[in-house]
Fold:
Amino acid sequence: MKRRKTILHDREVEYVVKKSSRARRLRVAVYCDASVIVTVPVDFGEHKVERYLKEKASWVLDKLDYFLRLSKTVRIGGGLREYKKNRAQALEFVTAKVAKINELYKFSFGKISIKNHKTRWGSCSKKRNLNFNYKIIFLPDELAEYVIVHELCHLQEFNHSQKFWNLVSRNFSDYKLLIEKLSAVR
Structure:
């Protein structure tokens, strides 16, 4: 296998040509480690490979970009067993953080609960209860604190209006960046 480079839409792309006696036609594969493998029949003219890659440039670059984004995504697994194992620790963690952060806001609230949410990091109920995903303990501190600030601010503004974001920005002026970072964690 020989490593080569080509330019696809102004981007340098490295690829490997692999000759195979089983291959009947040219095949391009892009893998999660961002490697590009071009498999060709043994008697295939190698000069045709680069031309084919240029024809498929949009597809190849889309796949490379997809795997690049995916590699930046952090996955926090878990299920019922993990939830039960970490719920008490999460409650202790969140309760301490809420107390500290709420020194700035001084909002009154009901109870704090730890949930096993599939898609949410937190929520605030009409009864002024704060609910948090147990996986919050696995987040970097800055993101965990952002989630807590976000839910605390819903105690005063039960929406995502400009007033709400002004409250959030009292603690996190860079909240947009934090939202982006948080969306990369699943």
Summary: Strands lie at 2-8, 11-20, 27-30, 36-41, 112-115, 122-124, 130-133.
